[in-house]
Write a structure and sequence with these properties.
A: alpha/beta; Rossmann fold; six-stranded mixed sheet; two-stranded antiparallel ribbon; 11 helices; 10 strands; 10% strand; B: mainly beta; Ubiquitin-like (UB roll); five-stranded mixed sheet
C-alpha cells in the first residue's frame, strides 16, 4: 500500500476512503480534515479563544495538538474526577502535554471543590456512573469556559463516539437527544457556551494513529468505570459491520446529520424555551434545581454515608468567579445539567510560556 | 501461512504467539476488529497488507474508548 500523497510505503490506511498515508504525510492530512470541518461547519474563527476539554486520552490530546498546530489559540481544561489511579495518571498526561507544548491547562478538582467524586455517582441499577460523569464534565467544561470568557468549548468526540451515540439513541428512540446530536451545539443562553466536535468525521483509529505518529503521550488504559458500558457494545457492533462494509459508520452518522436530523425537534441547539436559573447555583436549567446540583447532592450524601470526609467546600482555592455558565449538551442527559457550587479552577504550579 | 511471531497486546501487555502472514491476518487470527486496533512494529504503524515474518515483534494498540465522552 502506498501513500496517497507521496507514494512512499504507507502506514495508516483509511479503509472507508480507500486511501493510505505514510507517517510523514498523515499528520498533514489529519489536520487538513480538522481544518476542513472547522471551516465547513463554522465551528469557530481564527480569533476565537477555544477551550479544549481534555481527559488525557488520545482524542482530546490529539485535538489539542492539532488545533495548536493549526494556529488556534487553544487552552485545555481537565476535570479531576477522582477515579483512583486512573484519574491520577490521566491528569499527569494532560499536565505533561501542556508543559511540553507550553500551553495553559485549567483544572477543576471535584473532591476538593465539590465534595464528591465520580465513583460516588454510581447508578443504582447499572452500577455505572458514566451518564452522571458526562453531566458533571459537561457542566464544568461549560462553566469554566463561561467564567473565563472562552468563545467555544471543543471536545474530542470522534466518528466512532458519534456513531455509537446515534446508534444508542436510535435503539432507545430518544427523539429529543437525536434532535440535538451534531458537531455544533449553538448557544441559546448567555451562560451556555457554544460546543463543537472538530473530530466527528475522523475515526477513533485515525486519532490514535495521529497521537502515535506525533508522539503524544496519552493514557492507553480504559476508564475502569466504563468497563461493560453500553457505548462499548455499540462500538463493537458497528465495527463488526465496518469490517464487512468499510464506510458504514461514516455513512450512518453523516447520512443522519444531512438527512435525518432536520426532521427532529430541537435540531442542533440547546433548548432555549423554558430555561431559568437553578435555585441553588444560578445556572441555566429547565428544572427548579439543575441536574448537576441534584447529582452533586447525591454524591455528597453518598460520601457522607460511606464515611469519606467531605472537604470544606468554602475553603477551595483558585479563581473563576461567579458568573453565568452551565452544564448542557446532548447525548444522554438533558440540557438541564445545570450548576452547582462555583468550580475552582486550579492552575498548574508552573506554566512555561506559550510557544504555539 | 508464516510461522509464529511474538505479539504484545496493549495496554496490559499480554503476550501471544501467533501465526499470520499479514497484519490483516494477524488481527483476524486474534479475533480483533481492524477498525478498533493499530498494529505497530518498531514504532511504525503497519497497514493491513504488510507481510509479517516470524522474527517480527509487533504491538497491538486498542483504540476504542467507552463511557461518557
Amino acid at each position: 500500500m502506498r501513500c496517497h500523497t507521496c507514494a512512499a510505503p504507507a502506514n495508516v490506511e483509511i479503509r472507508r476512503s480507500r486511501i493510505a498515508f505514510c507517517a510523514r504525510c498523515y499528520p498533514t492530512w489529519f489536520r487538513s480534515r480538522v481544518q476542513e470541518r472547522i471551516d465547513h461547519d463554522r465551528m469557530f474563527r481564527r480569533e476565537d479563544r477555544v477551550l479544549v476539554a481534555v481527559s488525557g486520552g488520545k482524542d482530546s490530546l490529539a485535538l489539542w495538538h492539532a488545533l495548536t498546530r493549526l494556529g488556534y489559540r487553544a487552552d485545555g481544561v481537565y476535570i479531576r474526577l477522582g477515579i483512583g489511579g486512573y484519574s491520577r495518571r490521566s491528569q499527569e498526561k494532560c499536565e505533561r502535554f501542556a508543559e511540553q507544548h507550553g500551553l495553559t491547562l485549567h483544572q477543576v478538582d471535584l473532591e476538593e471543590n465539590e465534595g464528591f467524586v465520580v465513583p460516588d455517582l454510581r447508578d443504582a441499577r447499572s452500577g455505572k456512573p458514566c451518564a452522571a460523569c458526562g453531566t458533571v464534565k459537561r457542566y464544568h467544561f461549560n462553566r469554566v469556559a463561561a467564567d473565563l470568557g472562552y468563545e467555544v468549548v471543543a471536545t474530542g468526540h470522534n466518528l466512532d463516539d458519534e456513531a455509537a451515540t446515534l446508534f444508542g439513541n436510535l435503539v432507545h428512540w430518544n427523539v429529543d437527544y437525536l434532535g440535538r446530536q451534531g458537531p455544533v451545539l449553538e448557544s441559546t443562553h448567555p451562560g451556555l457556551v457554544r460546543k463543537v466536535k472538530p473530530l466527528y468525521r475522523l475515526g477513533e483509529r485515525e486519532t490514535a494513529a495521529y497521537a502515535i505518529i506525533e508522539r503524544i503521550d496519552y493514557i492507553l488504559e480504559e476508564c475502569p468505570m466504563a468497563r461493560g458500558a453500553k457505548s462499548l457494545a455499540y462500538k463493537a457492533m458497528l465495527n463488526s459491520l465496518e469490517e464487512q462494509q468499510p464506510g458504514t459508520k461514516y455513512g450512518f452518522l453523516v447520512g443522519f446529520l444531512k438527512q435525518g436530523r432536520a426532521a427532529l425537534p430541537g435540531a442542533g441547539a440547546d433548548r432555549a424555551a423554558g430555561l431559568r436559573s437553578c435555585v441553588r447555583c444560578g445556572q441555566p436549567t429547565t428544572a427548579e434545581v439543575c441536574a448537576y446540583c441534584r447529582l452533586a447532592e447525591r454524591g455528597r450524601r453518598k460520601r457522607a454515608r460511606s464515611g469519606s470526609a467531605a472537604p470544606d467546600r468554602l475553603s477551595r482555592s483558585g479563581r473563576a468567579g461567579p458568573g453565568p455558565g452551565a452544564g448542557r449538551d446532548a447525548p444522554h442527559p438533558g440540557p438541564d445539567g445545570g450548576g452547582g457550587p462555583r468550580p475552582a479552577v486550579v492552575e498548574p504550579p508552573a506554566r512555561p510560556s506559550p510557544s504555539g | 501461512m508464516g510461522r509464529e511471531m511474538r505479539v504484545t497486546i496493549l495496554p496490559e501487555r499480554e503476550v501471544r504467539e501467533v501465526r499470520a502472514r499479514t497484519v490483516a491476518d494477524l488481527l483476524q487470527e486474534l479475533g480483533l476488529h481492524r477498525d478498533a486496533h493499530l498494529v505497530v512494529r518498531r514504532d511504525e504503524i503497519l497497514t493491513g497488507d504488510v507481510r509479517l515474518a516470524e522474527t517480527d515483534e509487533v504491538e497491538i494498540y486498542p483504540v476504542i474508548s467507552g463511557g461518557a465522552r
